[in-house]
Specification:
The complex is a heterodimer of chains A (385) and B (138). With 385 residues, chain A is an alpha+beta fold. Chain A contains 13 helices and 12 strands. Chain A has one domain: Thiolase/Chalcone synthase (Peroxisomal Thiolase, Chain A, domain 1, 3-Layer(aba) Sandwich), CATH 3.40.47. With 138 residues, chain B is mainly beta. Classes of the chains: A alpha+beta (385), B mainly beta (138).
Chain lengths: 385, 138
Amino acid sequence: MNSIKGQYAIVGVGESDVGKRGSRPGVTVMDLDLEAGVRAIRDSGLRKEDIDGVIARGPQSNYSAVLAGCLGLPPRHYICDVGLSGSASATMILNAVAALHAGFCTSVLCMNGSVGGDEGGGGGEGVRGGWVHDLSQPFGQLGAPTGYSLLARRHMHEYGTTSEQFGAIAVACRKHASLNSNASYRTPITLEDHQNSRMIADPFRLLDCCPSTVAAGAVIITSAERARDLPNKPVYLLGLGHCNTHSDGQYAPNMTTVAMRDASQRAYEMAGLGPKDVDFANLYDCFTYAALVTLEDYGFCKKGEGGAFVENGRIELGGELPLNTGGGLLSQGHASGFLHITESATQLRGAAGERQVADAKIGIVSGQCGTLGINACLLLGNEPG
Amino acid sequence: MAQASSRPVPVPSPRTQPFWDGCARDELLLQRCKSCHIYWHPPSPLCPNCLSNDYEWTPASGRGTVYTFSVVHHAFGHAWEPLVPYVLAVIELAEGPRMLSNVVDVPPDAVRIGMDVAVIFQPVSETISLPLFRPVAS
């Protein structure tokens, strides 16, 4: 049994004000990260002098050092920049626990945000196509929807998954966002709205794609022992897993069983838990299909049955497994997945108001990038286990 | 259907230059390991199997099947406006590796996973031809 289980906890939670792209003219990623970071510090009950670790992902080198300086932290902190895109947020939590466990620091502030727009798909992934730029862009693999749609099509081919089933995920996320005052897109949608939305990269319609948003999230992690002396109910880290299967979806060895499977197995094993123990799931949903395949690889249903699983309200609040309870990337905000972490912590504190999952004890988070090839999985609980 | 004039032209890197040089001669080249004889794509400095850097650029058959595809309706940039809808596809080459390309000379709604295809080369500049794929009888 891995000794990390339950030894560390989230003690501070902060979200920037979230909005549609362009809703906060002139705001930068750094503004957003600091807004969320300060809120997390204030929420935690720690003094900023107690923070001796900063993990971030930014628009420049040494970015976490820049943020530490802006926050005026005493000059003795551990820092780490995480370079992954959509899995960066959840990966920060893994790295924070590793740094705490190694004794590099005692309380770590993790922050991540994006302003949408020019940095590409809302996630800030730099040059689209990266190392295979000249072998992808000239064929029209340009925005993120094109790459993910290739994998979604393969799933439809192998398992008969339908566009309407993708739509059920979009509808659930929007329903949950309608109950979240800090969400970008709050007007409920129907399956018909999804089916009538314009085609972007078939099989993806507009409402299969997360919009560009202005959003950031932050949390503070410290030891469970220290957490007990702080004002908030600690949210314990029970299981952590990471996996990489590929860097670019078009070259994925397997397009329908992806990095999420092994990442979640490692997290479940650490936690001594299984899918049946999980009360809600906040899964990276840059596209509807990403959440669907994650439900399968995280073991909530058999491979190929994700389409049937998401139908008939099972993933909506009140259903068997509420999915993306704050609205997700699809309706709350992008922030490279950080809002899945803040939302999960809020649920496990019992502080989610009208979108609260009844009796929530265990939540699971997915951070994902690399067209489903890179995954970080977190199992969180309101007890140390 | 694709119009050569408006299509963005790839800018090869030193790593991919031999691939594009092959396309300019109407040859689809793959790296092939001289030690363990596997083919790979996209171009990289090492054999991903045995890590040898002793490889040769080898003409491929140009035949393959559609492994998956997307029909792109949204123009991601003005240059693509005359090109949509187009079929972005992953082609599984007969030699094994998969390659990103377009399926052309067929209505998008007739493209199927598993369809047999063969390469054609579409010039887009003096020095660059794109390897595209069109359906063929199996």
